[in-house]
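Q: I have two molecules that I believe assemble together. Could you output structure tokens for the complex as a whole instead of separate predictions?
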Amino acid sequence: MHIPDGYLGPYTYIAMWIIMVPIWYYAGRKLSLELKSRQVPLLALAAAFSFVIMMFNVPIPGGSTGHAVGGAIIGIVLGPWAGVIVISVALVLQALMFGDGGITAIAANCFNMAVVMPFVAYYVYKLISSGTEISSSRRIIASAIAGYVSLTVAAAFTGFEFGIQPLLHHTAEGVPLYMPYSLSVTVPAMVLEHALGFSILEALVTALIFAYIQKTDTSLLYGEADSKKKKRMKNVSTA
Amino acid sequence: MDKIIKNLAIGLVALMILAPLGLLAVGETFGEWSNEEIEEKLGFVPSGLEELSSLWSAPMPDYALPGAGDSMTSASIAYILSAIIGVIICGGLLYFVGKKVARN
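A: Yes, here they are, computed for all two components at once.
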């Protein structure tokens, strides 16, 4: 899902930079205001994890290869805004140092994997797990579905960005200048290979790590430490 | 908390050691073709794509050491080395910046 240089024309990649700069700015500000010292090791670990999990290429029937991103579990555990920063750091390093994803496409890749993924995952998880106890097994299922849906949606965004290129950039004779395939090819290709393959892996990774954290220390989960504190404060004020 | 971080870190180290398994998957990735692969598919390389594709030369393209040969052993070593570099830079950057900006 790492779009290389040359696949997106300037309209798209510049637009993505314009979208991403304020998102990074806001996410960075929010993180620096809310971050507590004890969360820092987990934050660092999440960025390192995201980097490494993306190196695990797996084949799927049909001859394509791809990987999980780790964006869903990061969005659920650290919250979507911290997820933006954490996954972006991994993606920028991959582009600069390893040529995985283009330089011009850094913003587009960060939008798809570091914004769409943690936000979709976080809200899918919240929606499915609402009203359940923190220890509920429904939350593990919620995290798995969040992993599955978020990577598939991110793939659809990527497919869309690919597919609008022949419409935006072509010669007078209609020869494409960048990604040559149109929406009717790119969206199904991206969505299907993820929905039938890589999103299943993302779901497994998400559920596995979620189950571990749920079993060991739920106060690590985004929003849970605060909501406990709020409840306690509420109890104090009503007492 | 510390024990969990430690266990998650152990899991991460295991993933780093196992990373070369990711090299076993051979095949192309949709939308990440090389110029040669595009030429094969279309009979030509779109001119804008060709121009932009050589914009950046990464120091370790595709997580490999340039000029180290392409045996599975050297590819695996380069892959693990890439994972180590990734973990140190990503983890280190967020750790130090995080410690700087974090409250209490």
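A: One point stands out. Chain B has one domain: 2-24+31-101.
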